[in-house]
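Standup notes, structure subgroup. Blocker cleared on the adenosine-5'-diphosphate input:
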Amino acid sequence: MANPPEHNRVTIRNATKRFGSLLAVNNVSLDVKPGQVILIIGPSGSGKSTLLRSINRLEYLSKGQIWIDQDSVTDPRTDIRLIREEVGMVFQNFHLFPHLTVLDNITMAPTTVKHIPKGEAQETARHLLERVGLADKADSYPDQLSGGQQQRVAIARALAMNPKVMLFDEPTSALDPEMIKEVLDVMMDLAKEGMTMLVVSHEMGFARAAADTVIFMDEGQIVETGSPKDIFENPREDRTKRFLEHIL
Ligand code: ADP
Ligand code: MG
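Run returned:
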């Protein structure tokens, strides 16, 4: 396919990723519309992270293509900086720069990748910190913050690039239970504001409140796709049913 469908925010066609003889992602195709919030569930090792990481080229596909709007992620001629601008990613373990303050963590990419003047980047960063409820933490260092606060900084940092799509890979899995809600609340606000999101998570509350679509992956493939109600209350596939018995 030379061009992706015009109204997609993210287009994935026949995405395949091998690690040696292992097929981590096996011929996955997916259309994501602007503003859509897709939740990806599935057992450990089913290829969820590899699929997300392929969308911002942390992994190169072995086969297949991915676009953000009309920009090809998988074309090696596409500048990695463009991809870093268009796609924000939040990881399980926050990945903040430990030697930088919260404010500097957030302004780093906009000033170095996008060449936004420092003062302007700092102003944006302070707005974003306000949005995630951490206006008073601008001058703190990551290790002075709780896990939930660090993850909210990581979200603000990703948003600072003004991305077209946000990827979340098990954003609450490393958090103590009392901190999960503060992170999910920020994610739900983002979803309400119309951000396009792909989220790997087994948080049912988020799924029901914010996801339009749930995808169940197993062995590198999309086994079943549907609304949260379809998938959680009325799954069609045996593999989906068996998996849900473990997590619900
Ligand atoms: P999930 O996120 O669903 O747990 P992953 O995408 O992390 O699954 O992994 C899918 C499969 O690919 C697993 O079998 C995993 O061990 C393997 N895998 C992931 N990354 C690598 C890598 N860098 N090298 C080799 N195998 C990998
Ligand atoms: Mg994973």
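Discussed briefly. The first strand starts at residue 10 and ends at 19.
Next: hand off to the docking folks.
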